[in-house]
Fold:
Amino acid sequence: MKQGRFKGVFEQRKGRRNNILTRNLTPGKTVYDELLVREGKNEYREWNPKKSKLGAAILKGIKEIGIEENSVVLYLGAAYGTTASHVSDIVGKKGFVFALDFAPRVMRDMVFVCEERKNMAPMFFDANKPEEYKDKMVKEVDVVYMDIAQRNQTEIFLKNVDMFLRKGGYGLLALKARSVDVTAQPRKIFESVRRELEKHLKIIDFKILEPFEKDHCMFVCKKGG
Ligand SMILES: C[S@@+](CC[C@H](N)C(=O)[O-])C[C@H]1O[C@@H](n2cnc3c(N)ncnc32)[C@H](O)[C@@H]1O
Structure:
């Protein structure tokens, strides 16, 4: 297994493609039927870029992800824990992932993922109301990651960044253009969101996620200070 561009993210050649993988924190167990790959004493989980926007952004060559060993991450829109579980692998036993979602159906499954993964906690809240969970987590996090398809995605993201992200920390926003406005051209939406983000944060990189995800992009930002 080859160490990839980011610590904790590995690469393996498969035919003509480069696959990415994370080292499994819970050997023998899968989260979304991903393939497990054994090498020596270690076990790795294949990271499917069609099921994870962060995986897609890494394969598209994003410059930084800000998530590393020991990071504390607030993950908004964790759903069944697909991407959040890879983040949990990367941050490792001394890091932590607050995995938030407001849908009861997905939460039921995610609770089981969190039971297996001691560095993940389920948070059953609306990301639009951070004041309701501010006493349920640490004061500051190293990374705010958001993947929720809402019309006011940028506003929700900035609220959480403002409230929880430490200075120098990273904010990652997976943006779905069609949720902001179904009629507008995705590129126009990406541009207007970029202008809004730039008022508050330094934009480190931006990638359109096609061919893995249609009409989505990923922003990687840094909080000044
Ligand atoms: C595209 S899915 C997330 C997929 C996940 N990030 C992954 O890669 O595994 C979007 C999730 O956002 C959640 N969501 C949407 N609006 C939300 C809100 N205001 N607060 C919390 N969760 C929300 C939905 O319930 C859904 O599970």
Notes: The pocket of S-adenosylmethionine is lined by residues 52-53, 77-79, 82-83, 100-103, 106, 126-128, 147-150 (CB under 6 Å). The two ends are 37 Å apart (CA to CA).
